[in-house]
Amino acid sequence: MLVFLLRRRCFSTTTTTPAFSNLYTKYSFTPPKSLDDQKPKTPNIRSQHSDNTIRKKKPLYRPPSSLDRSGQNPIKSDLPFDFRFSYTESSPAVRPIGLREPKYSPFGPERVDRAWTGVCAPAVDPMAGGKEEAEKLEAKRNKIRNMVQGQDLTNAERLALVQSCGKHKTKRQINLGRDGLTHNMLNDIHNNWKQAEAVRIKCMGVPTVDMKNVCTQLEDKAFGKIIHRHGGSLILYRGRNYNPKKRPVIPLMLWKPQEPVYPKLIKTTIEGLSIEETKEMRKKGLAVPALTMLAKNGYYGGLVPMIRDAFLVEELVRIDCRGLERKDYKKLGAKLRDLVPCILVTFEKEQIVIWRGKDYKPKEDGCFLVDRESFDKSDTNPGGHESQDVNHYQIELNSDDEK
Predict the structure, then answer these.
(1) Rounded to whole angstroms, how far apart are CA atoms 171 and 38?
(2) CRM domain: which residues (predicted)?
């Protein structure tokens, strides 16, 4: 038995069988040469190639970023006005006393061909500009607006547009909130004008105190025309000659810039009074019955006339602002100081207390718009487009909008 195993072992070492054949192991059979693999085995070229050359590493994935402007020119805009974050809540006449952050442009680094001053991106170099440059820019804005508007609308056309923008007809609407008319909102207006000739704008909150300023800025910056107004709801018409393909270039702000530092609204002592008289007036003002209570995101268009009427009888007026943010009723106080006019006493306990002053004279001027306006040609005044007469069709339309 041992001899047989040795012979078998010697025979197995001498015979060569292909690796893929199991004939010998099962049946002790040696395959003929015709069944052998006639193709020569090729070496692994891929492994040799990897040994000779080192594979290059893939670059790291970089997500697309609007801040990456490598190889691109800055955006050029020919709009003849200074770029601001808010056109209704900031005034070029009021100069700040400091900045809260470095002068980082909210448009992004090197995205716009205008320098950011911390407050605005001026259309003209502020060092070289003056009243003459401001007048040239205003004349250019008026020229562009007249070219875009073209011939005035007839009464039938205006009423048809107002009816098409009603709440029962379309849901398209732009909301104007506490920041007022912002720069990016101009882009939203032009986007809506692609689909329709007019767009509905709903104004809420602090900007509604001065609706005349809101209407003026909308017409001045968007080059449109307001054809209907009821309370805080406006309808802005784009114009007869408006071409969506030739709309102005409006670079977008990528973030909200920090508001600059302005002088304090309320000082330690009121001008013309002593410290004791100031303290006594603040205590007395907080005890006065509230004239009105402001709702959050409400319409405040009748607040200034209400305060002027109250000043005919009372010396101090208190406005209840519970529920509003502190920065909102501070902005509200700053607007009331200039519009009424009046003297701010305190903002304590979420209240606005204002004093009419020692030598108060009622201000009688038509600087405020009525709650409801008619833009019919037969009702317009020669001095402007304000009128208090409203036809029967418009009253029915406004009642439908309120529903």
Answers:
(1) 79
(2) 151-249, 271-367
Tell me, yes or no, whether 108 and 232 share the same domain.
Answer: yes
Tens of pLDDT along 9-63? 544 444 444 445 565 676 666 666 665 555 555 555 555 555 556 777 888 877 7
307 in a domain, yes or no? yes
CA atoms within 13 A on the CB side of 226: 26
- Beta strands 316-320; 351-355: pairing state: antiparallel
CB atoms within 10 A of CB 75: 17
Residue 157: both structure tokens together: 């056309």
Task: Write down the pLDDT at residue 94.
Answer: 86
Task: Give the domain range for residue 378.
Answer: 374-402
Whole-angstrom Cα distance, residue 236 to residue 239? 9
Q: How confident is the model at residue 375 (pLDDT cuts 50, 70, 90)?
A: low
- Looking at the domain assignment, is residue 326 inside a domain? yes
Angstrom distances, CA of residue 357 to CA of 8, 312, 397: 126, 12, 43
The whole-angstrom separation of Cα 158 and Cα 151 is 12
The answer to whether the CB of 371 falls within 8 A of the CB of 302 is yes
